[in-house]
């Protein structure tokens, strides 16, 4: 085997991180009304050996917390002497939203619609610009960690532009049971970085404002698998688990206002015409059924039992493969995560709030 090349120093915001060194550097994001500076903590872990630059970031939506814990676990396990390349770990991008337990920024903008941003724009746009130009553009790969929005939960899944073969390859390495070939959405970190040719995966798992052990462990394992696939960590001999690519997805919306009782959970197979939930008046009269229009797998759902007509209740994914097979892939996946028995796994099931 050829001897691995030595890494170079990584220059970041005027600081130098030598090969084999790790450093926490504050990226100044904005100022508060009080003139106190608000900064994004960034940890640069510069491997002794040469390799790609990968950013793993979380909480672009400030209330999406599972990824914050994934990043913490990841940086605690990296051995800088064995790492090839540079890991840029950013546990909290939207520091404003994080402080307020909110998805948004104080100007009520969604940071993940503001990339690549502009130096002279609104607060959100400036922050996007700083983060995009100083951090994202430096990367060869990006793993962007998300959860469902508030009162919504997602089956662990990768969303990515699979028309980029390298993005497809790392999505298969991450190996969540379901992968969604998601179109690029203007202004998102994923779209704008993909446009520059940087492969980006969006990992979606669980619900906002929670720590969910299965989602955290699955993300932690997936990130490590990607790092193996791109040569940053030593490859494992273990065969990658299956991931099934969804042909399409759609939301099933509430057809009336009322109280929701859900009959299915994440990862479950549903048949065309199957009743997935009831929506009723408080006393249970005038109940309506919410039925699947097509057979598929539940990959996201509302957890709050109070709904208005038109609310998106179930996110269903549709496959070329037989739905029983896909359901089996999900079951195998959850078993694998439980068997891996990682910190801080305490419960045996994804919290589906059924
Ligand atoms: Zn998000």
From TrEMBL:
Keywords: Hydrolase, Metal-binding, Zinc. It comes from the Bacteria. Residues 50-230 form the Succinylglutamate desuccinylase/Aspartoacylase catalytic domain. Its cofactor is Zn(2+). One of its GO terms (molecular function) is metal ion binding. PANTHER family: BLL3975 PROTEIN, SUCCINYLGLUTAMATE DESUCCINYLASE_ASPARTOACYLASE FAMILY PROTEIN. This is Succinylglutamate desuccinylase/Aspartoacylase catalytic domain-containing protein. It comes from Vibrio scophthalmi.
């Amino acid at each position: 085997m050829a001897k691995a090349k030595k890494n170079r120093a990584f220059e970041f915001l005027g600081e130098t991180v030598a090969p084999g060194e790790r450093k926490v550097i504050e990226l100044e994001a904005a100022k508060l009304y009080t003139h106190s500076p608000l900064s994004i903590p960034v940890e640069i872990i510069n491997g002794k050996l040469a390799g790609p630059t990968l950013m793993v970031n979380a909480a672009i939506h400030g209330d999406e917390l599972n990824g914050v814990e994934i990043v913490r676990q990841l940086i605690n396990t990296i051995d800088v002497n064995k790492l090839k390349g540079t890991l840029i770990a950013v546990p909290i991008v939207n520091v404003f939203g994080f402080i307020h337990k909110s998805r948004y920024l104080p100007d009520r903008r969604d940071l993940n619609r503001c990339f690549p941003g502009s130096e002279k724009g609104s607060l959100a746009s400036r922050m996007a610009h700083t983060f995009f130009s100083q951090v994202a553009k430096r990367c060869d790969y990006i793993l962007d960690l998300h959860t469902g929005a508030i009162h919504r939960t997602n089956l662990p899944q990768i969303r990515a532009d699979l028309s980029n073969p390298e993005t497809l390859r790392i999505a298969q390495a991450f190996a969540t049971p379901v992968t969604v070939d998601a179109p690029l959405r203007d202004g998102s970190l994923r779209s704008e970085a993909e446009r520059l040719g940087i492969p980006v995966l969006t990992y979606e798992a669980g619900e906002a404002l929670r720590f969910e052990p299965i989602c955290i462990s699955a993300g932690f394992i997936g990130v490590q698998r990607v790092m193996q696939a791109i040569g940053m960590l030593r490859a494992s001999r273990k065969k990658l688990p299956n991931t099934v690519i969804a042909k399409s997805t759609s939301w099933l919306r509430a057809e009336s206002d009322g109280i929701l009782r859900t009959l299915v959970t994440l990862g479950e197979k549903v048949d065309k015409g199957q009743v997935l939930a009831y929506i009723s008046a408080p006393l249970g009269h005038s109940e309506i059924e919410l039925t699947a229009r097509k057979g598929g797998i539940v990959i996201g759902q509302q957890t709050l039992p109070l709904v208005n007509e038109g609310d998106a209740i179930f996110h269903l994914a549709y496959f070329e493969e037989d739905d029983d097979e896909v359901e089996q892939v999900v079951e195998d996946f959850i078993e694998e995560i439980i068997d891996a028995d990682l910190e801080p796994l305490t419960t045996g099931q994804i919290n589906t709030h059924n």
